[in-house]
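Forwarding the complex inputs:
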Amino acid sequence: MSDRSVFFVSDGTGITAETMGNSILAQFAIKPRHIRRPFIDTVDKAFQVVREINTAGEREGKKPIVFTTLANDDVLDILKTCQGKVFDVIKTFVEPLEEEFNMKSNHRVGRFSDPSVDGEYNNRIDAIHFSLEHDDGQSSRNLESADVVLVGVSRSGKTPTSLYLAMQHGIKAANVPLIPEDFDRGFLPSMLKPYKKKCFGLTIDPERLSQIRNERRPNSRYASLENCRAEVSSAEAMMRREGIAWLSSTHKSIEEIATTILRDLRPDRLIY
Amino acid sequence: MSDRSVFFVSDGTGITAETMGNSILAQFAIKPRHIRRPFIDTVDKAFQVVREINTAGEREGKKPIVFTTLANDDVLDILKTCQGKVFDVIKTFVEPLEEEFNMKSNHRVGRFSDPSVDGEYNNRIDAIHFSLEHDDGQSSRNLESADVVLVGVSRSGKTPTSLYLAMQHGIKAANVPLIPEDFDRGFLPSMLKPYKKKCFGLTIDPERLSQIRNERRPNSRYASLENCRAEVSSAEAMMRREGIAWLSSTHKSIEEIATTILRDLRPDRLIY
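Prediction (whole assembly, two chains):
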């Protein structure tokens, strides 16, 4: 167990405080204990968090670090009485912006807008359902309304990337596997023909692919290094021949793959 | 089109800069144009972004706002020559932390760790595949290894929430629909019986449910307000009888639902 605690305290989900805090902590060679405290929206709840922070600090003999995004001044004032080191993520940047915008901020509690009236939110949900229905080449129905069609061999990362693109960016991302039958025939799956311009390929090191496939189907031909090498090399040759851009998912997270796809295939989505 | 531009400039995906920037901008009654510039990891790319920022500023007659998480000092120094107002998200908090930790930061470029060697990342990918395989009551295989089983009527938000829990928190979230046959019999689906303690319910206002279902199957009995009212009221009665905690998804985003489920059902996941 680590000997230093970091608290993420928010009146909403705490996603901002946590994303931010984690990026900052990544700059240091330490592994603190992380404690999320979402929905801290009353003075009473704030007092309770202060007690938790102080207890951790006494136990560890080190000041806990506190990243917070509380917008309500009463709640924030209580939190600031704790013995931890408080980093106020919002306020630090809000005051200089008030000056630049020549406008007072509205101290809005950091929550998502109401989904029942938010068009952008509903687009994300629609995109998730679209990506699910078009996972793994399940359906060619409505493929013309896809924003992106990911292609690649089985277990190259297409499904998580499609779902991430839908969930975070509202992108309708279908995915279609390239399978040995396609390599034998030497053609892309026929459902892809009309949509080649929307295709984006994922490839992966055969060694890593074999390792991933072995976790699912140990000692199968499907997972063998020899077969993985053959599939990957055929898939790359096919994508090259068809002029489909691709990247390797081996050392990239789904977040990085998704951002690259947006930049290369839908640069308009980088402006919104 | 808005008359003020906001840039998110990062050497990685830009997710931190964007999450952070959006939370701060939500404090103001303005709708600026958002421009993401990920993977800015060389001096040349930084010069190009500076030109973009300056061009936007001249066109709009207002200083662009720039949220950045650049860790490389050479690249950051170039960016800071722009005519926009630069908010350096990382550096602002890193220096006071260096003092508190009594340790120099490592100026690490903000990227995800390498998935091929990162256990936590692989747990997330496994959780995504688990949640997909256990979407919509498709399979009772391995249900004992689920962290959470979401239950509720069709289109109450179970699928997007399951996938979000998997993707962001590495939670193995299954989901099982409650359907009219279950209400007629008066019992939970039998596959749920052994796992009642892991169940969490989603409910939804019948009016909103009818609206959502009508988008998929217009004018069907399935989507009719009368049927939605009957299903929702039967589902709530069943969850009450079975002692299953639930919440309403009507006015909550999947992020808020997921955070609530973690807090109520898996509080251990709030500490990591």
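Chain A touches chain B through 78 residues (CB under 8 Å).
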